[in-house]
Amino acid sequence: MPLGTYKEAVSARSTDSKILDVSQDGGIVSALLCYAIDEGIIEGAVVAGTPDDDWRPIPTVVTSSDEVIAAAGTKYSMSPTLSALKDAVRQNGLEKVGVVATPCQVQGLRKAKAYPFTRFVTEKVNLIIGIYCMENFPMASLDTFATSKLGFDSLTEASKMDIGKGKFWLTKDGEDKGLAIKETHGYEQAGCNVCQDYVAEWADVSTGSVGSPDGWSTVLVRTDDGESVFKAAVDAGLIETKPMDDVKPGLPLLEKLAKGKKDKNTAERERRAKMGVRIPTIY
Amino acid sequence: MFDKLKKAFGGSEEPKPKVQKEVKAAAPAKEEPKAAAPAETKAASSKPRIGYIHLSGCTGDAMSLTENYDILSTVLTDMVDIVYGQTLVDKWIHGTYAEEMPEMDVCLIEGSVCLQDEHSVHELLTAREKSGLIVAFGSCAVTGCFTTYARGGQQAQPKHESYLPISSLVKVDAALPGCPVAPEMIAKTVVAVCEGDLDYLKPAMDLAACNAGCGCDVLTNVVRQGLCSGCGTCGLACPTRAMGYSEGRPSCDRDRCIKCGTCYVMCPRSWLPEGRIKKETGL
Ligand SMILES: Cc1cc2nc3c(=O)[nH]c(=O)nc-3n(C[C@H](O)[C@H](O)[C@H](O)COP(=O)(O)OP(=O)(O)OC[C@H]3O[C@@H](n4cnc5c(N)ncnc54)[C@H](O)[C@@H]3O)c2cc1C
Ligand code: SF4
Ligand code: SF4
Ligand code: SF4
Predict the structure, then answer these.
(1) Which atom of ligand 3 lies closest to the CA of B235?
(2) Global pTM?
(3) In this structure, which residue's CA is closest to atom 1 in ligand 2?
(4) Domains in chain B, ordered, with CATH?
(5) Record: contact B231-A126, CB cut-off 8 A
(6) Is B5 helix (H, G, I), strand (E, B) or coil?
(7) Angstrom distances, CA of residue B173 to CA of A86, B55, B183, B204, B221
(8) CA neighbours within 13 Å on the CB side: how many for A167?
(9) Where exactly are the structural domains of chain A?
(10) Which of B179, B69, B171, B89 is nearest to B129 (CA)?
(11) pLDDT tens for residues A35-78?
């Protein structure tokens, strides 16, 4: 199963224009976090903001919907998000915490729950929102895309960054400039080349753009916890949904990409093992 | 190794309702499917005989053990016999209990061993002879942790200067790092031991051979192997907040690092307990 275990797959979008104005796709991540905070399901969350508006992701603890919305949008570089979980629990004293996580971060968090070597932190995480992820880039790679390949003076000129329709996009003065994905190959971080999970298979609920039309998100509801929060947010009118079968390109594309990533990066693991360098031990 | 463990815990088959509750608490999503066949089912024999030896450590690990208030009394009274120990019971060859060290099924050892302390060396070597299994309990026993930095020249015994991981002198069967080892980790291990869940214990057994720990481990074994994803789990793990990040990579402040080894043990790219995560989440 290239998409992991899930109870339900739907296409969805936030109904709040405040969120849709700034969200990457359908604003599902922000809508769920805002709802969960407002309802007291979580007391706060760890997200990736970019306080200096320079696209550098900084792990950030948020405790209100305003703060959630301020951190919306994808930053295509590495955010050591889980390191801030400790601040959420120890400094902020949060007892119920949400985390927005890429697949590798979900793996770190689930491992830390299964083997809690750090006392009394990960047990407080009760909502893991996973985002799909094909790869991630060092900041210097993003700089290269902006300046050398798209002719920007600097990355900070970009008001939006996105990957979709086969291109890496930067928006400047309302105009979208695209770079063929092929041109970005070789600029992703090496750790992504051994990553076999595209759709955050161990999250409570996973979401990303692939499979749904522009401005909408594809949501995979996985655990009971994920289901109860997502359903409640839909029932409260904060999220609208459409059946996956009614949207284009739909789940087949998501499955294809997920399987492609698994196959390619499993081969890379095998290649590295053969060379005699380390790969993660799987228990 | 497995056979020894099975033998040591083969007789343990009393129902332990309280302890099982602990497992569920750690896995809120799903009922825990029964662990792999509980070892052997020979006629209920006596409870496992446990020893607790305190070498050069701060008693933090013993305190962590006692922090499992909810299961501690059940464990101590119904599930195991503490037959030797200075802290948990007053039965100690150098103390009031002047007899021979008794035979033990499992001996937990806290603290590193000081080469100039003849009593410690003797106690450790004797424990290896008397105990079926030796568990390095807490980072001082596993890696030496902060006792690594001892340089002697201090009271009460100025000659005491060489503090080694216990695996330098004896074969260790399982290692539970942490400074101190986390209470939840102890609880989950106790449950696994009592249920004969060898799958859960396997990483701790494989860690037994490791006697070095440092913030450099993630650099040497993860970053330099092209495996790091910048997820931040190592920063979450570090008890002294020695782990910062630069360009999405861990960067260890060596003046803060106490060489506990927790960062590397927690990293999802060192080892990943896929089977256990799937079991706990139902995914
Ligand atoms: C590196 C990366 C690669 C991705 N690749 C794909 C892909 O191939 N296909 C696909 O469908 N989707 C991909 N996504 C997910 C997609 O870009 C959106 O983040 C997702 O659809 C959520 O959109 P939203 O409108 O629901 O979220 P929003 O409401 O906009 O919220 C986004 C959330 O993501 C968090 N976030 C932003 N950057 C990061 C980061 N670097 N690390 C961790 N958290 C972050 C923010 O804090 C915010 O909470 C990727 C995301 C990242 C970070
Ligand atoms: S591709 Fe995998 S390793 Fe790389 S950032 Fe995404 S989830 Fe993490
Ligand atoms: S836990 Fe491992 S993969 Fe994650 S940032 Fe640290 S070294 Fe990198
Ligand atoms: S960096 Fe931190 S977690 Fe790693 S060994 Fe040092 S003190 Fe322990």
Answers:
(1) 6
(2) 0.91
(3) A135
(4) 2-207 (3.40.50.700), 215-281 (3.30.70.20)
(5) no
(6) helix
(7) 31, 17, 20, 8, 23
(8) 12
(9) 8-135+194-275, 137-187
(10) B171
(11) 999 999 999 999 999 999 999 999 999 999 999 999 999 999 99
Q: Going by C-beta distance under 8 Å and a sequence separation of 6 or more, which residues neighbour residue A52?
A: none
Alpha-carbon distance A189 to nearest alpha carbon in chain B (angstroms)? 7
How wide is the angle at C-alpha B39 spanned by C-alphas B175 and B72, nearest 5°? 55
What is the predicted ipTM?
Answer: 0.96
Q: At what angle do helices B2-9 and B198-207 cross, to 10 degrees?
A: 130
> What are the pLDDT digits (tens) for B12-56?
333 333 333 333 333 333 333 433 344 443 334 578 899 999 999
**Nearest chain B Cα distance for residue A262, angstroms:** 15
Q: Please, which residues have CB within 8 angstroms of residue A186's CB and are 6 or more apart in sequence?
A: none
End-to-end CA distance of chain B: 30
Closest CA relative to residue A27, chosen from A255, A207, A235, A232 = A207
Q: What burial class does residue B102 get, using C-beta atoms within 10 Å of its C-beta: 0-12 exposed, 13-18 middle, 19+ buried? A: middle
User: Can you read off the two tokens belonging to residue B195?
Assistant: 């249920």
Counting ligands in written order, the one closest to the CA of A208 is 1
The architecture of the domain spanning A137-187 is Roll (3.10)
Point out the ligand 4 atom lying closest to the alpha carbon of residue B213: 5
Record: contact B181-A117, CB cut-off 8 A: yes
Query: Is A7 strand, coil or helix?
Result: coil
